[in-house]
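Lab meeting minutes (informal)
Scribe: AK
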Amino acid sequence: MQLEQPSIENMEFMLQTLAEKLQVVNRAIMDVEDYNIEKYEDLKWMYDLVISKGHLSASETQAFINELAAIRK
């Protein structure tokens, strides 16, 4: 998937992937409708970092979830 172009579909893909990687229990915080397309670059940065890192510690996982909450509408 080409994620360089901001789109709702790309955001939804990244959020679903992040939910899996971060093992998010409350998937309601990953609803694409709660994110503004203007924050696409922030979301893409987090996605790229999580994917490249592979395994995250519990504190890193919590930090990413907090960051996701911060960029929600």
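Next up, CB showed the second protein from the same session:
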Amino acid sequence: MSLGFSRYAVQGGDVGSLIASTLATAYDSVAAIHLNLLPSLDRVTSDDPSLSFSEKAAIERAEQRFLTPTTGAALLQSTRPATIGAMVSSSPLALLAWIGEKFLEWPDDPISLDELLTNVSLYWFTETMPRCIYTYRGTFINGHQYSFRPFKQPFGFSWFMRELAPGPKNIVEKKGDLVFYRQHEQGGHFAALERPTEFLQDVEYFLAVAWPRDG
């Protein structure tokens, strides 16, 4: 608001989906919201008969991923964020190892070495990784689950189907006034980095529908 805009749209994935959802449910100044990851941990199972073949395959793939070291990293960040923060901020090599494994396992398309080192450098030179990890505190334990009221603003969702968390339409449409929904066979957790053209096209198309220029 300090920039002089009375209304604005929000977009988010991963922790950004939580931030965007919080803004949308708390402030009337948010005109529209687009996500590429659900902010709640709704249980999505592959035995739902309404799922398409590709949706079923994507959900089964996600279920298997959460049986891998992905779960271990999530639990550590959830239960020991200060410890992990101190460890990864102790040396650039430690930070590279912690972030690098995610860039190896989570994307659908390979991430270049330059992109990886640029990402790690942003955290290292700004000394922000310990604080970033703390946003995961308490997640994934004791049945904790983020829950938001349905969005009253126009809502859009892009499911890049190699994402860790599935986003089938029958779940997403319960979250609010869904005016845009698109699935992508390629692209994973780092969708904006992996598939920048498709990602931007989705956001632009959503805004054209949800918040036209004369709106």
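CB comment: The two ends are 18 Å apart (CA to CA).
No objections, moving on.
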